[in-house]
Automatic annotation (TrEMBL):
It holds the Pfam family Methyltransf_3. This is Class I SAM-dependent methyltransferase. Gene3D superfamilies: Vaccinia Virus protein VP39. GO terms for molecular function: methyltransferase activity. Keywords: Methyltransferase, S-adenosyl-L-methionine, Transferase. SUPFAM superfamilies: S-adenosyl-L-methionine-dependent methyltransferases. One of its GO terms (biological process) is methylation. The keyword Methyltransferase applies.
């Protein structure tokens, strides 16, 4: 990988089990952050910092990433990486805690882009929070939108609650006429939706 700091994030993710977003999804995310000129970004699921670095690479230099994770060890690793990548405290605000407690405290309509890369079971809750947090024309992106077994649920395979929640969020996005959505088949899938 060309970028040595991003490469470090992938090594640490593999070591710690933080499961970094794969590089094709990361490159698409950087593109989306650049295309929307996202200055104010919220991420749920800092992990070891791979997706955060992709976002920071696409955001304008004055952009600020607010990134939330319940796992302090993952976040401390990411903090060091962001700093080595030239995105220290001024550009990356790391908040340790459950997204269920942190997101409701963030400002309504204050963000250009919300990235969700955390517990799939909470995806419907995260969509509700993203609708509140985004400015008009803001973008929400869900990672792992194509994750899951190709086997249909049925007598031989019990429904997986995480996959059910991902399908539910896809249904919610499709049915919301205030959102313009696109499923990007990169990596394990990015579901992107613009709030009109
Ligand atoms: C797949 S990893 C994130 C990988 C990261 N986005 C990257 O590309 O490097 C998921 C992270 O979400 C965090 N997480 C899961 N559920 C959470 C929750 N409810 N609130 C905050 N963090 C959560 C985990 O601690 C873990 O670090």
């Amino acid at each position: 990988m060309e970028d040595p700091v991003i490469a470090e994030a992938y090594e640490a993710g593999a070591r710690t089990g933080a499961t970094p977003m794969d590089t094709t999804a990361g490159a698409a995310l950087r593109f989306l952050a650049a295309a929307t000129r996202a200055r104010s970004v919220v991420e749920v699921g800092t992990g070891c910092g791979a997706s955060g670095l992709w976002l920071l690479r696409g955001m304008p230099p004055e952009g600020i990433l607010t990134t939330v994770d319940a796992n302090g060890a993952h976040q401390e690793f990411a903090r060091g990486l962001f700093s080595r990548a030239g995105a220290g405290a001024g550009r990356a605000r790391l908040i340790r805690g459950s997204a269920h407690e942190v997101l409701p405290r963030l400002t309504d309509g204050g963000y250009d882009l919300v990235l969700i890369d955390a517990d799939a079971l909470s995806y419907p809750f995260y969509l509700d929070e993203a609708r509140r947090l985004l400015r008009p024309n803001g973008l929400v992106v869900f990672h792992n939108a194509m994750a899951g077994s190709p086997e249909p649920d049925g007598p031989l395979r019990a429904p997986d609650p995480g996959e059910t929640a991902v399908r539910e969020v896809i249904r919610m996005v499709r049915e919301d006429e205030s959102l313009i959505a696109l499923l990007l088949p990169v990596g394990s899938g990015l579901l992107a939706a613009i709030r009109s």
